[in-house]
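Researcher: Sequence recovery benchmark, item below. Answer with residues only.
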């Protein structure tokens, strides 16, 4: 049911999808959707929650791993986000459609809460810890930095279908790994705390 709702929301937009159409696509009765999710709003919240829960669980595991070298974690955060979007390419498109294009969408508040309380908040907390340990630069706002990392990983998936042919980059199977490596290099140079000799 969540997969069917996702497909239709990407194709038509949240407002255009009725429970009967979603149920038909999922090959279940509308009553099944009501039983599990309550209503259409509950179904869409569950759809986004599932996607962000997968990201959050991986971020949580990474940040709680005592054996992980501190310098590796920014790169791994990038990997987690890029691979999650590559697996759910509908996600950034649907966020744009429901939140930015349809500013009064009933999903806007729910989606903001799901993102802010999930992987985004964990990233901010971890970045603050890294700043306190002088691993990354202290002159950067960790909240802005978390949004920057999210933008670097998500925005290319929105833009390449539009400009990829013109700039010679294809959204193919190799693209996620190229994006991960590119962003790792940028963030390593931009975020690494300077040594005493470099100051």
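Model:
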């Amino acid at each position: 049911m969540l997969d069917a709702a996702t497909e239709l929301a990407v194709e038509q937009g949240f407002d255009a999808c009725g429970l009967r159409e979603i149920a038909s696509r999922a090959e279940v009765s509308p009553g099944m959707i009501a039983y599990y999710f309550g209503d259409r709003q509950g179904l869409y919240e569950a759809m986004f929650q599932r996607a962000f829960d997968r990201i959050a669980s991986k971020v949580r595991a990474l940040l709680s791993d005592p054996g992980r070298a501190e310098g590796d974690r920014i790169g791994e955060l990038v990997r987690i986000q890029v691979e999650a979007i590559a697996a759910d390419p509908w996600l950034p498109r649907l966020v744009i459609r429901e939140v930015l294009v349809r500013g009064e969408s009933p999903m806007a508040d729910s989606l903001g809460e799901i993102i802010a309380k999930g992987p985004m908040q964990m990233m901010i907390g971890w970045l603050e810890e890294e700043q306190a340990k002088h691993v990354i630069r202290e002159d950067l706002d960790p909240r802005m930095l978390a949004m920057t990392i999210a933008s670097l990983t998500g925005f290319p998936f929105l833009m390449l279908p539009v400009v990829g042919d013109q700039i010679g980059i294809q959204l193919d199977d190799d693209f996620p790994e190229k994006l991960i490596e590119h962003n790792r290099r940028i963030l390593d140079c931009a975020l690494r705390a300077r040594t005493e000799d470099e100051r």
